[in-house]
Amino acid sequence: MAGWQPLECKRKTILTAAGETERYLYFVLEGIQRGFYIGDDKQEATIVFTYAPSFSGLADSFLTQTPSKYFLETLTSSRFLRKTYKEIEALMNQYPNIQKMVLQLTGFVLKGVLERQIELQCFSAEEKFKSLLKRSPHVLQIIPHKYLASYLGIDATTFSKLLGTVRL
Amino acid sequence: MKKYKSLELLEQLQADTRQLILEANYLKTTDPGILLQEPAPGTWSVIQVLQHLNSYGNYYLLAIERSLKQDRLAIDMFKPGWLGDYFTKLMKPNENGAIAYKMQSPKDHRPHSRPDAFPVLNTFLEQQHYLLELLESAKEKNIGSIRIPVSISRFIKLKAGDVFRFLIAHEQRHFVQIENTLVTIKGITNKYPAILPAIQR
C-alpha cells in the first residue's frame, strides 16, 4: 500500500459534505461509515454503509468528479488509508491492470446498487429485512438499528418488530 | 501555548465546517416561518444570526483568499499567536455547548430587520464551501507566517491559522444560539444537535 496516506477520525466526523466533490478513495482499516441524504421534513435516507476491510468514499462523486448530493460520516472512530483522485487517475493511466480493477470494482458496486433498487421498489418491509440479514448478518451487531431501518426505508418501530418476530 | 500539526489542524477545521454545512442543510428543511421568528422581542431570528455570520464571511473569506496568494510554503507545526488564541477561546462554546461570555456584536455586523430566508441560507452554504476550499489550499501554505488584518482594525493582523480557528469558533458559537432559538420557538428539544459533537472533540 505504498503512497496511501493514513487517516484517523473520531466518531461522527463528516468526511465529505453534500455539495463537495469527493477528493479521496478510502480503504477502511477500522470502523463503520455511513452515506446519507437529507430530504424535506428532515427526512434522512441512509444510502450506503462501508466498513473494514473494503473501500469507502462517495464513489459516484469520486469517479465523476462532480459535487455529491449526500454526506459521508463516520459512525464509529475509524482508521483509513486514502489516495486522492489525481493519484488514482495517474495510477490508472500508468497501469492498465489498475484501471481494469477499478472498472471491475465499479461494476460490482453498480450491481449491488441495482439489486438494492429492486428490493426498495418491489420488496415488502419483511422481505427487505430478511434479504439484508441473509446478505450481511453481521451488520445487526455493528450498526445501530435506527440506521439499518433508515437504510431499508422502513420505520424504526417496524424494524424492531421484525427483529422480534422474523425467523431466519 | 499548545502547538498543532498544521495539517491535522486544517483537517479538523474542515470537519468542523462540514458539520456546519450539515446543520445548515437541516435548517433548509425547516419551515421558513420558524427561521424568521424572533424568540423574544429584540433578539435575533435564526436567519438574522446567519446574516450576521455572512457579514463576517464577506470580509474574512476574501481577506483569506488574498493572503493565501503569498508564496510561503507549508510548515509542519503551527503555534497560535497569543491574540488569535485568546479570540478563539473567547468565541468557542464550551464542551457542554454553553456560551461562557455573552457579547455585543459590532454595529456594522448587525442584521437588518426583514431578511429573506432562503437567499441567506444559500449564501451561508456557499460561504462554507468556499471556506472548505480555502482550508484545502492553506495546506500548501505557511499558516503561521501569513497574516491577515482583522475586520475591526486593519492594523491588527492575526496568523492565517488563527483567523481560520476563530472564524469557525465564531460560527459554532452562533450555531449554539441557533439551536437554542429553535428550542425556544418550537418548545422541544432539538432533534439534530449537529454542533455539539464538533465542539466536544
Outline the structure in words.
The complex is a heterodimer of chains A (168) and B (201). Chain A is of the alpha+beta class and 168 residues long. Chain A has one domain: Jelly Rolls (Sandwich), CATH 2.60.120. Chain A is 45% helix and 26% strand. Chain A has helices at 59-64, 85-94, 96-122, 125-135, 139-142, 145-152, 156-165; strands at residues 5-9, 14-16, 24-30, 32-38, 44-51, 55-56, 71-74, 78-84. Chain A starts with a strand and ends with a helix. Chain B is mostly helical and 201 residues long. Chain B has a single domain, classed as Up-down Bundle (Four Helix Bundle (Hemerythrin (Met), subunit A)). Chain B contains seven helices and four strands. Chain B has helices at residues 6-28, 32-35, 46-67, 82-91, 117-138, 160-186, 195-200, and strands spanning 4-5, 77-78, 147-149, 157-159. In chain B, the strands form two sheets. Chain B has a two-stranded antiparallel sheet with strand order 1-2. In chain B, strands 3-4 form a two-stranded antiparallel ribbon. In chain B, strand 3 and strand 4 (157-159) form a beta hairpin. The A-B interface holds A 9-20, 38-43, 71 and B 15, 17-19, 21-22, 25-26, 29-30, 125, 129, 132, 191-192, 197, 201.
How would you summarize this macromolecular structure in one to three sentences?
The complex is a heterodimer of chains A (168) and B (201). With 168 residues, chain A is α+β, with helices and mostly antiparallel strands. Chain A is 45% helix and 26% strand.
